[in-house]
Amino acid sequence: CKEARAPTMSMTLFVNVNLGASGGGTRREPIKVTPMMKLSDAVDGMLAKIGRQAPQGYEITLKRKPVDATLPVRFSGLQNRDTLDLELKSEAASTSQRAAPQRKEKPTTTAATATRRPPPQQEQAMTRPAPPGPSPSDLPADRDLIVFHEDLLASGQSLGSRSEDLGDDFYDFTAQDFARIQQKRQELARQEESRTLQTRAMRERERRQRAEEMPPVRVRVVLPDRWCLQCIFKATETVSGVYSYVASLVDCPSFVLFTTPPKCVLDRTSRDTLYDAGLVPAVKLHFGFKGTPSGGQIWKQGVVDKFSVHSPDQVEGHGRRAKVGVSVATAKDQEAVPVKTQAASAEDKGKAKKAGVPKWLKLGK
Fold it and tell me: What does the alpha-carbon distance between residue 214 and residue 275 come to, in Å, rounded to a whole number?
């Protein structure tokens, strides 16, 4: 008896043959292929059927992706009723030549044009000396600015460590310390519980109120030569405002301010407040720049001479007066709030008693 063979499954593919302008444009031809049949054999048979030859070969693409015609169909990734694009090599070369734009040669610059001198007015401006730097009277005098060297702080810390001698009982954990920690935990728990019942607008208003009640922020900027500038900002002022103020004191147009560790560069155009950026109650920023500052020095003329201090006590006491003034004003405001609240509540109770009986209700005598 004869063995029964399994039927061979065949596929139908469609080929768009680009015949060119002389050949009538594009022609769509179907081809029958089997899984183990080479695609090139089927294409060659189709070209012979329509009377076309490809002595220089051809290119086959599927959705603009090249297809290897030397592989069997089952390994080429083709599926039934796929549409292929076929372009003869000679036609492809002519098409690419027609599509390529003609490049115009740029005229070469001669030595005369390369060595051309600038006009007389521009040459005078180039040889004109640079204008002098700002005088000390033109420098910003607000924000309680001071300038000092980091060695000044090191000397002050060494003197303070010698004068202060804490006893062993200072490090004992007492009942007052435990009560203070417990009270702090209870306050944090109450704040967390109340925060879950607040809307987004309420949380934003509370955050803005806390920022306004913050004492002035001491901003210290350390330069690469270990000179420092220290000034006072409000917690509601922006990071870009700090950049603008530092730029008015240094002669370096391209610089960055960053905190460390870890290194975090502040955005020059940021509209975040110092409170939102986490730069409260005090912050130490580092000054970085690329290249060489104009004039060979970072400071503008007269800054160090006008604002420098030479005592560690002046640095430590910087900005304390402003803090005391803010705290006193805040305490006065907090004392005045309950009085107004009690008066308002008493007035509301009187109104509630008067409005106990509605006007439309008429009682008989």
Answer: 9
Q: Which residue has the higher pLDDT, 297 or 204?
A: 204
Tell me how far apart the alpha carbons of residues 234 and 22 are, in angstroms, rounded to a whole number: 80
| 349 vs 163: CA distance, rounded Å | 61
pLDDT category, 51, cuts 50, 70, 90? confident
Neighbours of 117 (CB within 10 A): 7
d(CA 87, CA 234): 73
Q: Is 308 in a helix, a strand, or coil?
A: strand
**How far is Cα 108 from Cα 332, in angstroms, rounded to an integer?**
79
Contact 35, 74 (CB under 8 A): yes
Count of other CB atoms within 10 angstroms of residue 109:
9
Q: What is the chain's percent helix, strand, coil content, to nearest 5?
A: 45, 20, 40
Distance CA 174, CA 4 (A): 99
Alpha carbon distance 228, 285 (integer Å): 10
Quick one: tokens of 355?
């409005």
CA atoms of 120 and 126, how far apart (whole Å): 10
Q: Give percent of the chain above pLDDT 90.
A: 21
d(CA 335, CA 312) in angstroms, rounded, equals 36
Which of 324, 238, 254 has the alpha carbon at shortest distance from 287? Answer: 254
Contact 8, 74 (CB under 8 A): no
Which distant-in-sequence residues (6+ apart) come within 8 Å of 118 by Cβ?
126
Torsion of CA 335, 276, 139, 300, to 10 degrees: 150
Q: Which is nearest to 251 in space by CA: 128, 131, 126, 133?
A: 133
d(CA 307, CA 24): 88
pLDDT tens readout for residues 230-242: 999 999 999 999 9
Residues 6+ apart with CB under 8 A from 153: 312, 315
Q: What is the DSSP track for 26-92?
A: EEEEEEEE-TTSBHHHHHHHHHHHHT---TT-EEEEETTEE--TTSBGGGTT--TT-EEEEEEHHHH
Are 234 and 275 in contact by the 8 Å Cβ rule? The answer is no
